[in-house]
Design goal:
Layout lengths: L17 H14 L5 H9 L2 H14 L1 H6 L12 H10 L1 H11 L2 H8 L3 H5 L5 H34 L5 H4 L8 H25 L4 H26 L9 H12 L10 H27 L4
Length: 293
């Protein structure tokens, strides 16, 4: 049946396992990146901060090298919660880049080509469809956040001597840095993911979705800053998604809040954003299920 007729009978074949159905979305999305040399160049650059932080871990535990440089480990900043938080913050531009390159066409392309009714006529519900699209960005953004953070954490644990504070207080302090890395990474990834998916679902032109995401992030910073100055309250900075996420990061890693935004307000704002995004996405995709016969 031609795509433009928008009517499909439910697919009656043998359904594939859920994992295989979901992974089909990332597979075909990544295939469309073939030939985009600039994207692969940024992909490589995304590993540069990781390499530099890994070298720093090596230098800090290499006593002979430090003696050659006439330095001591105490002169260098310690590898602690702040170390990993700074690493994740440095990775933010790479997360935003891949979000803007890969994210906008995720749903808008299916709407533009009227492919959603055909996809949903198969044994794929709207939540499976949304989860599959979510995984496209989640996988690639995870590489630059919690995956690299995990390697740095394991490298630090393996490299430091037994007499170090890292090992001595490992079960009480050091170990708890790992879940903080994962939780903060998931918050960053999910926030960007939901934002770009919502705007992608609202248009059939991915360029409009790209512009909308940029305007939403920058506009939130500007409006939040103006509101905070006029009303003399930092709480209004929660209108900025970026500021709210960073505020949550400071609180999660137990650091002094550089944004001066109360973390409870930031958590509330991000939670509302996630719930609103899921509601919009559900309504948008549900509309295309009406084309089934």
């Amino acid at each position: 049946m031609p795509v433009y007729q928008n009517k499909y009978k439910t697919w009656e074949g043998i359904p594939q396992p859920l994992f295989r159905r979901l992974m089909a979305f990332p597979k075909y999305s990544y295939m469309q990146l073939k030939g985009q040399k600039f994207v692969f160049m940024i992909l490589g650059l995304g590993w540069l901060p990781f390499v530099l932080f890994l070298i720093y871990i090596y230098v800090r535990v290499n006593v002979k090298l430090l003696e050659t440089l006439r330095m001591s480990p105490e002169q260098l900043p310690p590898v602690d919660a702040k170390f990993f938080f700074v690493f994740l913050i440095i990775q933010m531009p790479f997360l935003l880049f891949f979000t803007l390159v890969i994210g906008p066409p995720l749903i808008s392309r299916d709407i533009r080509h009227k492919a959603l009714p055909m996809i949903l006529s198969k044994p794929i519900g709207r939540w499976e469809y949304l989860l599959g699209k979510y995984l496209v960005l989640f996988i690639i953004l995870s590489v630059f956040t919690w995956f690299q953070g995990l390697i740095l954490f394991l490298s630090q644990t393996a490299a430091v001597p037994k007499a170090s504070e890292w090992r001595m207080y490992f079960w009480n302090e050091s170990l708890w840095i790992l879940p903080k890395i994962i939780i903060f990474s998931v918050i960053c990834i999910t926030t960007l993911n939901f934002l770009v998916m919502v705007f992608s679902s609202l248009t059939n032109n991915y360029r409009f979705a790209t512009a909308a995401v940029i305007m939403f992030i920058i506009g939130g910073i500007i409006i939040g800053g103006i509101a905070s100055e006029i009303l003399h309250s930092n709480k209004w900075m929660t209108l900025s998604v970026a500021t709210s996420v960073i505020s949550i990061g400071y609180w999660l890693f137990g650091l002094k809040n550089g944004t001066r935004v109360p973390p409870e307000y930031a958590l509330f704002m991000i939670t509302v954003l996630w719930l609103l995004s899921l509601w919009i996405l559900s309504r948008r995709i549900r509309a295309f299920e009406l084309y089934r016969e």
